[in-house]
Amino acid sequence: MRRTIVLVVGAVVAASLLTACGEKRDQIQPIAARAQKLTLMLDASPNADHVGIYEAMAKGYLEDAGVNLQLETPPSPNAPLSLLEDGKVDVAISSEPQLIIARDQKQTVLSFAALVQRPLTSVISIGSRHITKISQLRGKTVGTTGIPFQTAFLDTMLDHSDVPRSSVKQVDVGTNLVPSMLSGQVDATLGGYWNYQAIELRQARKKPNVIPVSAGGVPSYEELVLVTTEKYFENHVTLLRGLVQALGRGYAAVRADPQQGIDALDAANPSLDPTLQAAAVRATLPAFFPGDDKSWGWQFSNQWNAYGKWMYDHHLIAHLAARDYASTNQLLAGQGP
Fold first, then answer.
1. Three-state DSSP class for 277?
2. What's the per-residue H, E or C state across 78-129?
3. DSSP structural state of residue 220
4. Measured between alpha carbons, how far is 55 from 49 in angstroms, rounded to an integer?
5. How far, in Å, CA of 19 to CA of 37, rounded?
6. Residue 189: which of 202, 170, 216, 166 has the closest Cα?
7. Is the dihedral of CA 48, 293, 123, 41 positive or negative?
8. Which of 20, 29, 188, 327 has a CA that sits 20 to 30 A from residue 116's CA?
9. Contact 52/84 with Cβ under 8 angstroms?
10. In whole angstroms, what is the distance from residue 224 CA to residue 98 CA?
11. Angle, vertex CA 323, rays to CA 76 and CA 73, nearest 5
């Protein structure tokens, strides 16, 4: 079971008592005037994964919740959690694997809502390579971005399909996943997303074959989560709850009207390719929401436990306890005190 984090609710209780005693409405500051600043570092440059954030900003949901949200773009993929731990930002978007690794390294970070509920990372190849299942990687070259857990992904998928690890060559292509495929340097890549690189290739008429890692034997995990430090969580419960509920409204609005969300994303980021973003938003919509009638942002403890055990078994973390209490649902609608 996850640890119960003490919530600071005195201000909320006091506000409720004032209202109950007949406090005049004109003595309460307007929401926009009393909004608290909160800095959120994205995991990458703005893209379709963040569509609900931009929708919440465009529709004023954050101001309604008393949140003055300031977005920042990371200088590098590994920067968000480091800057979060150093107190440079209040909240960051990261992934479940990166968060557990950070906790294994004694960082005091905590996931408080899921942004993308399932893995986006995939094995991708162009159609001419005819790789439609993992067993066809035998004798092939696979490019990865050099992230250690991607090697573990590949090992697991090959083992799951009874393919000898020695029969597959792995090369580090960095961020050049698509170019390495188009040039013939590799037969397939592992590290691209089915909602981005695969769509990019499809729009270029390269007929990509896509195998999500979770379809190849890797335990499911949350690709993107909202993260803060345990100390910030304990000291800013009301502010973070407002953030979660505003973003939940934003993503729900995108689900109800995808084009409106796409327009908000494009308006805030005019340099983006609107055709690619529109396709990516529509493809990703189901992954923004959990099953089992849970609210937006829900994190499943059994999934976190299984994935953490997989990381430990593959020597990605040295301490199994790194997965324990790594996430909480306390800020979600209907949860917590």
1. helix
2. CHHHHHHHCCCCCEEEECHHHHHHHHHCCCCEEEEEEEECCCCEEEEECHHH
3. P
4. 12
5. 25
6. 170
7. positive
8. 188
9. no
10. 10
11. 20
CA 164 to chain centre: 32
Q: Tell me the pLDDT of the chain (337 aa) as tens digits.
A: 334 333 333 333 333 333 333 333 333 334 445 789 999 999 999 999 999 999 999 999 999 999 999 999 999 888 999 999 999 999 999 999 999 999 999 999 999 999 999 999 999 999 999 999 999 999 999 999 988 899 999 999 999 999 999 999 999 999 899 999 999 999 999 999 999 999 999 999 999 999 999 999 999 999 999 999 999 999 999 999 999 999 999 999 999 999 999 999 999 999 999 999 999 999 999 999 998 789 999 999 999 999 999 999 999 999 999 999 999 999 997 676 5
Q: 327: which DSSP letter? A: B
CATH code reported for the domain at 10-117+221-323: 3.40.190.10
> Residue 68 carries which DSSP code?
E
* CB-based contact 208:201 (threshold 8 Å): yes
pTM for this one?
0.87
Among 46, 42, 43, 52, which residue's Cα sits nearest to residue 269? 46
CA–CA dist 238, 248 (Å, integer): 15
Q: Where exactly are the structural domains of the chain?
A: 10-117+221-323, 121-215
Calculated CA dihedral for residues 161, 162, 164, 168, nearest 10 degrees = -20
Superfamily the domain 121-215 falls into: Periplasmic binding protein-like II (3.40.190.10)
- What's the distance, Cα to Cα, between the start and end of the chain in Å? 17
